[in-house]
TrEMBL record:
Gene3D superfamilies (UniProt xref): 3.40.630.30, Histidine kinase-like ATPase, C-terminal domain
The UniProt record lists the keyword Cell inner membrane: no
CDD domains the record matches: NAT_SF
Lineage: Bacteria, Pseudomonadati, Pseudomonadota, Alphaproteobacteria, Rhodospirillales
Protein name: GNAT family N-acetyltransferase
Top-level enzyme category: transferase
Top-rank lineage group of the source organism: Bacteria
Membrane-crossing residue ranges in chain numbering: none
Pfam families assigned to the protein according to its UniProt record, in alphabetical order: Acetyltransf_1 (PF00583), HATPase_c_2 (PF13581)
InterPro entries, per the entry: Acyl_CoA_acyltransferase (IPR016181), GNAT_dom (IPR000182), HATPase_C_sf (IPR036890), HATPase_dom (IPR003594)
Alphabetical keyword list: Acyltransferase, Transferase
């Protein structure tokens, strides 16, 4: 992730120094423009995190230290606490010690507990920087959403610049109201992502400079070799002009020129249009994520059939550059499907034969990213340890209690433990979602968990036989592992 170090502080791990650390974090956040309410949340988070580290990772008299780093990321302030103390299992804290952790998770937009091996441990939490929402820029006429005039000329395509951020926010408002991902309604955040290179966008520009279409490539970091296609929007007045297809084709050429391996995307299944656009470019389905879209997502002027509490998306992958040859370890019960998927995509993959199941001997490394505004969370297994299943179970319970609707778990297919341990994770109620090539320096198997959602899977739209076969596998696995009806 593109980031700038704002300030750093190192203090002995002693309770009396918690208050100065808290005040230090508040002072830096205040300089970044945070309002009083947000500052209070950051203070509480900092205080609870420091106390948790001091009480759980250091014994009385231990001359340990806590390092505090404040980092500026596009649209976010990140606070990292770094320490070299006793290893702590945050899924099994002693009675009474978990209260502070529960409070932290309730206050934080996003929080991660990272094991850095010999470099110690790291607790990271972040908060969105204060920026003006699109409503501050809209006129009273635009808020009333009047009927728009018909276009007089076809729009032209070009690459987006940071100066287009406000025009994009207006376009999304006209097309989706306030039902899209939250950050797109803040022009300053869009501008920062473009300037940092984490977002590469193509726009359709009408007469007069109005933005009437947009598709982006989103990168996890400047060195990422795979990108996510997203924020695909076409003004209702310009639908039916193949803008999505031509914009994504332009971005595919950009990805190829930059040496990126491929583009993955989540296509709506409420209608066939984005799926057909992906197929027209040569992209292939790699999975279906049920319950991915909140119910209030509103694609204006498109007739859809309700899918229940939340809607599904189809995962697609488009190769744009030769990727490394890899050996992958597919769980036996998913292997035929994954072999077919790799063959359809043209990936250079060999499938390792399963060996004797061995208990992982290292330490579990599990990344957790929560999107409370979307009701979803993403867990990433970075390293298998003997307590992985216990940690995943802990997070599932915690996220369900926080009313997170859809939880996704990514397993590295290059690790033999994925083939051996997938069934134990599925016993928790997780089931097959799909495969995303090259997502985390290799292919990942994505499992999914739904928090008591009522779904109408019969309303999921597919546009190809391969897509239908994938969806049938997902639905069958859900029924097998959770007892839910098709």
């Amino acid at each position: 992730m593109s980031e700038t170090l704002l300030a750093r502080l190192t203090v002995p791990a002693r309770r009396p120094l918690v208050t100065p650390v808290r005040d230090f974090i508040r002072a830096v956040a205040e300089l970044e423009g945070f309002a009083a309410k947000a500052l209070v949340r950051l203070e509480l988070l900092a205080e609870e995190a420091c106390l948790l580290v001091i009480e759980q990772a250091f014994e009385p008299g231990d001359p340990g230290e806590i390092g505090v780093a404040l980092l500026r990321q596009p649209g976010r302030l990140q606070v990292a606490l770094e320490y070299k103390g006793l290893p702590v299992d945050f899924s099994r804290l002693p009675d009474g010690a978990g209260l502070g952790l529960t409070l932290m998770r309730g206050l934080a937009e996003q929080i991660e507990f990272l094991n850095l091996g010999k470099n110690g441990r790291r607790i990271v939490f972040s908060a969105s920087l204060p920026v003006a929402p699109i409503t501050d820029y809209l006129t009273a006429e635009e808020r009333a959403r009047p009927a728009a005039p018909a276009p007089t000329a076809p729009p032209r395509l070009r690459m987006m610049t940071p100066d287009d951020a406000l025009a994009l926010a207006r376009c999304i408002y006209r097309s989706w109201g306030y039902t899209y991902a939250e950050f797109v309604y803040f022009p300053d955040r869009i501008r920062e992502m473009l300037e940092s290179g984490l977002m590469i966008s193509c726009v359709a520009e009408a007469e007069g400079g109005e933005i009437v279409g947009h598709v982006a490539l989103l990168r996890d970091g400047p060195e990422a070799r795979i990108v996510e296609s997203g924020i695909a929007v076409v003004d209702p007045r310009y639908r039916g002009h193949n803008l999505f297809k031509t914009m994504k084709q332009t971005l595919a050429e950009q990805a190829q020129a930059r040496g990126l391996y491929g583009i993955y995307s989540e296509a709506m299944t409420l209608h066939p249009f984005t799926q057909k656009g992906n197929h027209a470019l040569g992209a292939q389905e790699t999975g279906f994520l049920l319950g991915f879209l909140p119910r209030d997502v509103d694609p204006r002027r498109i007739e859809t059939c309700p899918q229940g509490d939340r809607a599904a998306v189809a995962l697609y992958y488009l190769r744009t550059h030769p990727e490394p040859a890899r050996a992958i370890h597919a769980p036996p019960h998913h292997r035929p499907l994954i072999e077919d998927l790799c063959r359809r995509l043209g990936l250079d993959r060999t499938f390792a034969e399963p060996g004797p199941a061995a208990e992982p001997g290292g330490e579990t490394r599990l990344g957790v990213r929560v999107r409370p505004e979307l009701g979803m969370a993403f867990l990433t297994v970075e390293a298998f340890g003997p307590d992985l299943v216990a940690q995943v179970r802990h997070h599932l319970i915690d996220l369900c209690c926080r009313r997170i609707d859809a939880i996704y778990l990514d397993l590295p297919l290059q690790d033999p433990a994925t083939a051996a341990g997938c069934a134990r994770l599925e016993a928790l109620g997780l089931f097959f979602g799909g495969v995303i090539p090259e997502l985390n320096r290799g292919d990942v198997l994505r499992l999914q968990y739904l928090n008591n959602l009522a779904l109408n899977v019969e309303a999921i739209v597919t546009v190809s036989p391969a897509g239908r076969a994938l969806l049938d596998h997902v639905v069958a696995e859900r029924r097998r592992l959770t007892g839910q009806p098709p």
